[in-house]
Amino acid sequence: MAEEFVHLAVAGTEGQDLEINMGPQHPSTHGVMRFVVKLKGEVVESVQPHCGYIHRGIEKMCESLSYPQIIHLTDRMDYLSAHINNEAVCLAVEKALNIEVSDRIKYIRTIIAELNRIASHLLWWSSMCMDMGAVTPYFYAFRDREKILDIFEETTGGRLLYSYNCPGGLMNDIHPNFQKRVKEFIPYFRKSFKEYDELVTGNVIFQNRTMGIGLLTREQAIAYGVTGPAGRGSGFACDVRKRAPYSAYDKVQFNEILYNEGDSFARYKVRMDEMLESLKIIEQLIDNIPEGSYVEKMKAVIKLPEGEYFQQVETARGELVVHIISDGNKTPYRVKFRSPCLSTLSVMDLISRNQKIADLIAIGGSLDLVIPDIDR
Amino acid sequence: MQGVLYDFTGLIQSIDAVFRASMSDLWATVLEYAIIGIIYLVIYALIGLFLVYAERKVCAFIQVRLGPNRVGPKGFFQTIADFIKLLLKENIKIKNADGVLFNLAPFIVIVASFLTFGTVPFAKGLQGIDLNIGVFFIMAVSSMGVVGILLGGWSSNSKYSLIGAMRSGAQIVSYELSVGLSLVTMVILTGTMQLSQIIELQSDGWFIFKGHIPALISLIIMMIAGTAEINRGPFDLAEAESELTAGYHTEYSGIKFAFFYLSEYMNMFVVSALVATVFFGGWMPLHIGSWQAFNHIMDFIPPIIWFILKSFALMYVIMLFKWTFPRLRIDQLLKLEWQYLLPISLFNVLLMAFVVYMKWYF
């Protein structure tokens, strides 16, 4: 009844589709992304993403910058997990130079990366709820994200783009308050996390809007290279932290969150549970940060030996791969980033066909796209 | 209770007598209509402005924010500043828009909402339109608003507006049924459709207590369907800013947008006032059967205060809905109406008829 009415009313002339431009300026594309959406009434026939509106040529720019300088560009790819992006480049450079950084550096990197992941997931949670019409979660999440950003500001000097990593270690040591404030944050966040669950996760409207919507099977996830929480929501065990541990991830106990449903709600649950896992990781590390130097001795000018270097990390959105080809100079010959969001974007059309416009928005929210990461 | 604050009938009659004494009957009627119209317009705008402010504060309270606090004490004049801004804004002409319909739409919306506002009984004797078919009249004129919304969406030559308007059309037409049936349920109990009489009948107890189970069901349905009828969250699909940018009023600017905005808030007021009148006794103080002393103390609070308290409490509930729940999808929205609310309210009408027939009410 409902579908027929809307269909007849909107389509008007038989057999003609309504084509709307969602973006580049649209409240729920979270950036300058443009989707050309073909509609039959309220039902989505196809979604065609057009990217490139915020392309800055980061990969090309890297070719004329030295390795410590590249860090500042990787910040700006997936700006919500800036620290983890930096870590990928640093790890690749350290691997190329055969430098084993001290445990202190590894521990601090891991703690900050996990805090960064929580901050990123909080922002995702707030914006997904806002996409679905609930505005209040936005403010709840931002209130708590602010606490993490304050911790970051003290230690790294930045609130969004930290550039705290550098090849061989960290830019500076942690602030004396760092451990105290992180330990204060953990119980505080556990408490407010319960509020989140009560406000959104258990809500009937929310569950009806997300369950069974935007189904992505495990095979499709693997075929399209959908990694991160979106892939794990489809049962694709792809957590780099488990599969190829880097930094201090081999020293901590944590679970890889897997859901097999493959719908928007599964992707939602993966991220929510991941926040708690991140807290667990931080709890195990925060009291045991070893003493020592926060940076290894490096040459003044870093030159990578000729060859190809490769490093994968798990950002908040999935697997980020850095591929550096060096010809022995102080600048790389070629850098390639495999960004998680581009692969995730590619399933947008597949999983939102035959869903409603409202679902398209909810699916977009559950995939957690960061546009500068797609365009680079 | 005596005194002008408790019964406005005498005051109104004496003013009427003064007019009629000094001029012919026709002129007196015309002049009275004009004066009442102007007073209602002013009150309409003032309540609208206050509601916008109140919603900002309530929303800020729920979202752990401060809300407006710069313009005037506690930000009280913020909405006035905003409306001045809206008045001064350019009326953008939309390319290829249907000019006449485009300009007509906001007026239809605001006229519909203003007509319903006229029936609101603020206190004894303080009611603009008191027809003997009051409930029916409210239902009839309130459904005129959907015409304005459909016209606005159709004529603005924007796909987002069109989708928003169509959604809103489907939504309002469906939920009208539930609102109507839950009012019918109450009319069976009251035996009259005149709002002033409905209130008088509640002098020994509000209908929500008198009608017990069917009245309670009817109240819940009325609150849900009423919220949907006025396009407010979680049923704000017609606007759905994350999907359709702003729905049917995407292309409107300046005063025309202000009309849509104002009418939305005033519709909320009218729905709360109607619920307060039919279920919670309107301006009637809380009276409990034979507790003479208690009833006497309650009578000391002027009826207008009772009315304002009740309708604002209900509006607070409607605001809580909006700021707590995510939005429904269009098919879920229509499913909720046709599969759940409508059968329940049909059953409820029968239940109420049975209760009234058996005289099981108090």
Can you describe this structure in just a few lines?
The complex is a heterodimer of chains A (376) and B (362). Chain A has 376 residues and is of the alpha+beta class.
Gyration radius of chain A, rounded? 21 Å
Which radius of gyration of chain B do the C-alpha atoms yield? Answer: 21 Å
Helix content of chain B: 55-70%
The coarse silhouette of chain B is globular
Average pLDDT for all residues of chain A:
85
Low-confidence stretches of chain A: 1-13
Shape of chain A: globular
Tell me the count of domains of chain A.
1
Largest sheet of chain A: 3 strands, antiparallel
Number of helices of chain A: 16
Assembly level: heterodimer
What is the string of helix and strand elements of chain A? HEEEHHHHHEEHHHHHHEEEHHHH
Termini gap of chain A: 45 Å
> What's the total number of strands of chain B?
0
Most residues in contact: chain pair = A-B, 38 and 37 residues
Description:
The complex is a heterodimer of chains A (376) and B (362). With 376 residues, chain A is an alpha+beta fold. Chain A is 49% helix and 12% strand. Chain A has a three-stranded antiparallel beta sheet. A three-stranded antiparallel beta sheet of chain A has the order 6-7-8. In chain A, strands 4-5 form a two-stranded antiparallel sheet. In chain A, a hairpin with a 2-residue loop joins β6 and β7. Chain A is globular and about 65 Å long. The model of chain A is unreliable at 1-13 (pLDDT under 50). Chain B has one domain (92-357). The mean pLDDT of chain B is 84.
